[in-house]
Every structure is written in C-alpha cells, then in structure tokens.
Fold this sequence. Notes:
The complex is a heterodimer. Chain A is flat, with a radius of gyration of 23 Å. Chain A has one domain (6-65, 79-105). Chain A is mainly alpha-helical. Chain A has helices at 12-18, 22-31, 38-54, 90-95; strands at 100-101, 104-105. In chain A, helix 1 (12-18) runs antiparallel to helix 3. Chain A has a two-stranded antiparallel ribbon. In chain A, strand 1 and strand 2 form a beta hairpin. The model of chain A is unreliable at 1-10 (pLDDT under 50). The N and C termini of chain A lie far apart (47 Å). Helix content of chain B is 38%, strand content 13%. Chain B has an 11-stranded mixed sheet with strand order 1-3-2-4-6-5-10-11-9-7-8, sandwiched between helices. In chain B, strand 2 (74-78), helix 4 and strand 3 (116-121) form a beta-alpha-beta unit. In chain B, helix 5 packs parallel to helix 6 and helix 9 (303-318) packs across helix 12 (369-389). The longest helix of chain B is centred in the last third of the chain and has 21 residues, at 369-389. At the A-B interface, helix 1, helix 2, helix 3 and helix 4 of A face helix 9, helix 10, helix 11 and helix 12 of B.
Amino acid sequence: MCSRPPSTVTGNLKRVSEQIDRGAVERVAKLARLELSDAELDEATTRLAGMMAHFADIDALDLDDVEPMTQPYELVNVLRDDVPLETLDHDEVLAAAPDASGGRFGVPPILGLDL
Amino acid sequence: MSTFQSARSIAASVSTGESSAVDVVSQHLARIEEREEEVHAFNLVLRDEALQSAERIDERIAAGEQVGPLAGVPIALKDNLCTRGIPTTCSSNILDGWRPPYDATVVSRLADAGAVFVGKTNLDEFAMGSSTENSAFGPTRNPLDTSRVPGGSSGGSAAAVAAGFSAMSLGSDTGGSIRQPAALCGVVGVKPTYGAVSRLGLIAFASSLDQIGPFTHDVADAALLLECMAGHDPGDSTSIPQPFPSLSESLDRGVAGLRIGRIVDLPSGADADVVASVDRAFEVLADAGAEIIDVTIPAFTYGLTAYYLIAPAEASSNLARYDGVRFGSRVEAADTNSMYMATRGEGFGPEVKRRIMLGTYALSAGYYDAYYGKALKVRRLMAQDFATAYESVDALVTPASPSVAFPFGSKTSDPLAMYLCDTYTIPSNLIGHPAMSVPFGAGENDLPIGVQVLAPAMGEPTMFAVAAELERSAGGNHV
C-alpha cells in the first residue's frame, strides 16, 4: 500500500479553485461548445469554484509514485478480423439526422469562420 | 418487501402453458394504466408492441417451441438503451424523437430469451443524478411514497419493478445508478463486473465506469436476468472474452465458511437507521456461519472526488457527439460553430451542462495534471486498497445509500449534497468490481433500506450467495 501522510496537504488545488472567475468559465464554455446565458455563466462560476475547492481533499495524498489508472481492466487495443460485416442501414441512419439530403448529413457553412 | 410474482414463476407458468404471455403482460399493463400517471416510471409505454410480442410467444409455445428462460416476462428498459425504431431519449430534449437504427446487445439477448418489453423508463438526463429529478420530462415518484424520490439515475426502472409495472427491468450504473434506486425502492439491483455485460447500444456517459444491470423483485430473479445477458460480445471492445460464471448454484450455498469484511474506515454520513440495518446484516451473516473480519480501505474516502473528476471528464468527451448533425435536435444558425453551441445550449439540461463544464475544465490545458491526472492516481490507490482487503476477505458489506428515499427538492439546490448519495457505491465503479443492493430492513416511515454486497472482479457467485442469505433472513419473497 502507498503511504498517505495527511500532513502533506499543499493546498494547490484550493489555490487553483480560487482562480476560477467568470472569464475562465466563459473560455471553458467555448471549449465545450456550450452556449450559456448570463445567469448560467454566473451559476457555473460559483458552482465550479465550490466544487473544485471541495475536491482539494486529494491534495492530502502523496501520489508522486502512483501510476494513473484510466480503466478498470487495462486492455490493449481489441481488433477484429479485417473482413466486411453487415453495417447499419444508410437510409435509416440518415433519417435520424436533422438535415440530410443527397445521401449526406447537411450542415451550415464551415469555412471562413473565426473559431 | 415485494409481493409481486417473480419472473421465474411467470416464465415457468408461461412455458408450460399454465398461463398465457398475453394475460401476464395484460396484468402488468393494467397496473401501468392504474398508477403510471402518479408514478411516471416511463418515458414511453410500449403497449401494442408488448401485446404483439406476447401473442407471438403464446403461438410459439402452442406450436411446441422452447421459448427461453424469460418466456413472457415483462421487462422495462432504461431509456438510454438503444431500441431499433423505438424512441430513445436519455430523458434529454437533445435526443427527443430519435429512433436508433439498431438494438443494444442486451435488448437482443433478452428478446431471444423470450422477454417482452413493456416500456422505456425515465432517468436523470444522460444518467446524471441520484433522484431522477434531472429528467427533461419530469421526475419519477417513488411508488412506496410518492412524496419522495425513487433514487437515480435509473429511478424509472426501479419504480417500474417496485410498482409491479414490469417483473424485471434494466438500468445502468456509473456511480451507483442501479444500486441506490434499488435501495430506495425496496428492490434488488446489481452492478455487474465491468465488462461482464455488453454495453453495445448503451448510450455512453462515462465509458470506464458504465455497466448495465438488473432490477428485480428478488435475488434469484437477478441471477436469472444477469445470466441471460452476460457474456462476451465482440461488438464491445471492453467486453471480457471469457464465459460468465453460473450463479444459480450460489443461491442456496449459504455463507458458511465465507469471510465477510466490515470496512472500519468507511466514510461516515449514513443515517442511524441505515447503520443499524448494516450492523444487523453482519449479525445475520455471522449467525449463518460467516466469519466477519475488520478491514481498512483508506482510499474509500477519496472515491467521491476521484469519481466527480473522472466521470464528468469522460462525459464531456462522450457528449461531444450531440452537435445537431447526425441525430436529435438542432437549433439553426448561420455557421456550424454557432449551430453547435446553440443546439447544445438549448438541448442539454442544467445538470448535464454543469458536468460538461466540470469535465471540460478538469481536462483543459494547465489543469489536467492537477485534477484529472490526480483522480486517476487515486483510482489506482482504490484498486490497491481493495486488492489488499480481498487478501483476507471474500466479500464486503456496506450501506448502499446513506439514507432512505428522500423528499422531492431536498437536495436539488446543492449538487454536492446530491453527489454524497453516491459515497458508498462509487468505489466499485472506479475499480470495475461487482456490487449489489438487497432490501434489508426498514427505516424512517417504514421505507426500505438497501444493504450493499461487494465482491472482487467476476466474484458474482460469492456476492449472490451473501445477498441470498441476507434475503432469506429478511424474509424475502421467492414466490
């Protein structure tokens, strides 16, 4: 087992959480492609800072020598034989799209934009 | 304790022609008609489809065919499981009206076993919540006390079984979303070992944590349902490529000689009535011949933090696909990026937005190591601590939920208070182990309490032996 002296509280995460302001929240919303109202941005700013401060409890842990664990069973890539199988029905898939024509998904213009 | 007929009994009488599948399904549909307006377990009741399926089963039995171990058993499906041509919404406006072009593997397997699907059940939007209050289509009410929540996120599935709308149901469990509502509704709920049940066709929330599992009236029905749907599926790359162990022999095994662990450093916070039930469970197991051993799992306390960084991080990535292009709703805009933002801003509800924001923040440049990276390391500690405990015990017993069913609105204003509902269920998801909730005792207002049994990966046979013993001593049905 790993040593976890409670005396190693550094407070790093707590300090990070204090840096969460409205500008940071707006940047995160843009990254997440989420349009939020002014009220939602205010709520998110308060909530996100509160949650991150709460999560600072893991600052107490000495994790330097611990390997991260991304999934319960560390499987390697699972590949199947390279042979054609039955696929989803093209028309059935396109029928679920908000805009489809000519056998393709339809989208608004994507070129010449400032993302 | 449930008084409805078990699925085993239904399948046995339908298979022998003693009763017809149409009659069984009609009885369940009549109960839905009687109470669904009050309970709201379903997003969609498949009345005509269920009766047609039941008729086909009766015809096959009349023709002398073997239909399967779930012949004529009415089953409800959580509305995040894909059903071909049938709306699947995740209780979200962003998927309202979407009809999947394929069935989830579990849906095909249960249909092959003779099950009849009676409806798609309500959930917290995209399975994010512990009360089903986050559904875009309104909350589900606990059939045992309609002023209280059924738990969540699979609240509709738990309520459907508790109200007798279906004999069994399927839910999904990412941090406790089967076990906690099972506890609050007085039914059995199982989160199987990660990879034991195929997730092809389960709409992803957090892919390293999600598992599909059963809700049933009793432990033996849960074993039956799990055996029908578990096993390798080449369509799910996280599916374990080995046979799932048989559970039926475990049910009467008893617990003599088993070593059952009591976690002495379990986080506090469970109500006194819940703690008393768990204490009594240990007494009952000791009386039945188990050895009760004290163990420590220091990382347990940090599970909540690790989970609420890892799950939203994975969700923020998984939910990127809802962009108004391939399925679901779209808000029209002049360019693609504005269309994405408007569609997602309008289509997702408050809790989903909150978790996407949390996850995106935790994964963003500069904070990745501080939050997500640390959470993944805590996950490793959790796995190590459990592995150490399982060197000296065969199974562990804890509360499933810190409290009995709580009143509507009592936790909605404080997301952190709601997240604490998951304290005892989260570690099993982080490390992929099986865990189940079995009704054991009652608390405030005579509401049911669920005791949680945990076991190591693929340890379901032991887990079911312990759960069956608890059920016997609590006077569980086996109708």
